[in-house]
Write a structure and sequence with these properties.
It is built from three helices and 29 strands. By secondary structure, it is mainly beta. The strands form three sheets. An eleven-stranded parallel β-sheet has the order 1-2-5-8-11-14-17-20-23-26-29, with no helix packed on it. The longest helix has 12 residues. The two termini are 35 Å apart.
């Protein structure tokens, strides 16, 4: 099935109609392809678009700069992760492919993060066994921009946010050649920022960034920006909530704290307590981009105490682990 949608057509209505299509129910292998014409494709006001069929789904735009799906949703409107995104993919999905458009949650922060109202995913991959593939996509929000479970691969994507804006209970999630950007807080200067909060499955690779560029806005005096922070409840025998993030040959702008990771002054337990080849907070070949755009090798001695610097043999171990998953071969 192929459907072409102009900006006057409703993507939300089309996705909802698929659940009642008997031909798709009788043929779960039939692929659904949606082609988005350039323009603004509005989402549902304070509601998610929800797709939960086994039929493979591919949504194709023209260019993320001129083709966008935008709407506002957040925790203050609908409780729980799978309900507060612009676009949610459910547990029955097998394969979803997104290319060449923007998904933006336009929510603007109106309260303190601790009051649990600002979480506002652009996309929620609420699926443990299928596979999400995104290429040349833009994902924009503030807090919790991307949430993933299971298996996913993001290639040449742009991701923006400010607090835990990539997070989830994933097995393996690869970000390949992506631009990760921490934005200014709309409430003013001085607020801390964190790119990732990993709640990865027990002993699994978690979030892997390969050849990615981490940049940031100036968030004002006293504002510290970290690549990752801990959720704080991971344990040796816990099913998930492991702090597993790998940076491989990435560049980091000087706005980020040189420690890279934080346990927030010891207030959040980190597990594993020390990274290794396959799990925990780890990096290899990181470079710092100076104000003059020159790249300087990262001084691993400055890494937070739970962090780990990988060797070439560690990378080979990680490659083998990734090859055993639905994600496939780890990019070079």
């Amino acid at each position: 099935m192929e459907k072409k949608l102009t900006s006057n057509d409703s993507l939300a209505e089309f996705i909802a109609s698929l659940a009642n299509d008997d031909s798709l129910k009788n043929n779960p292998l039939e692929e659904i392809k949606v082609i988005l014409a350039p323009g603004e494709h509005k989402g549902l006001f304070h509601e998610r678009i929800f797709y939960d069929l086994p039929n493979p789904l591919a949504i194709q735009g023209e260019n993320p700069k001129n083709t966008a799906l935008r709407s506002e949703n957040c925790e203050a409107y609908h409780k729980d992760t799978e309900n507060r995104a612009v676009f949610t993919f459910g547990k029955n999905c097998t394969k979803v492919t997104l290319r060449d458009f923007t998904i933006e949650n336009t929510h603007v922060k109106t309260c303190d993060d601790a009051s649990l109202g600002n979480q506002a995913e652009a996309i929620c991959w609420h699926n443990d066994k299928g596979f999400l593939y995104c290429e040349n996509m833009h994902f924009l929000s503030r807090q919790d921009t991307i949430h993933v479970r299971g298996f996913s691969h993001f290639k040449n994507c742009y991701v923006a946010g400010d607090v835990d804006f990539i997070w989830g209970y994933c097995d393996t999630s690869i970000f390949d050649g992506c631009h990760i950007h921490t934005i200014k807080d709309n409430r003013g200067d001085g607020h801390p920022a964190y790119v990732l909060q990993s709640r990865a499955l027990n002993s699994r690779p978690g979030f892997i960034f390969i050849g990615c560029d981490f940049t940031a806005d100036d968030r004002g005096k006293g504002a510290r920006i970290f690549i990752g922070r801990s959720q704080g409840t991971g344990k040796k025998d816990s099913v998930d909530r492991w702090d597993s993030i790998a940076l491989v040959n990435c560049t980091v702008s000087p706005e980020y704290d040189e420690a890279l990771w934080t346990d927030e002054n010891g207030t959040r337990a980190v597990y594993p307590e020390k990274g290794c080849a396959l799990t925990g907070w780890r990096e290899f070949g990181t470079k710092i981009r100076g104000a003059d755009s020159n790249l300087v090798p990262y001084d691993s001695k400055k890494q937070e105490k739970h962090g780990y610097t990988m060797s070439l043999s560690d990378l080979q171990q990680l490659q083998k682990s990734v090859e055993s998953t639905n994600v496939g071969t780890m990019p070079n």
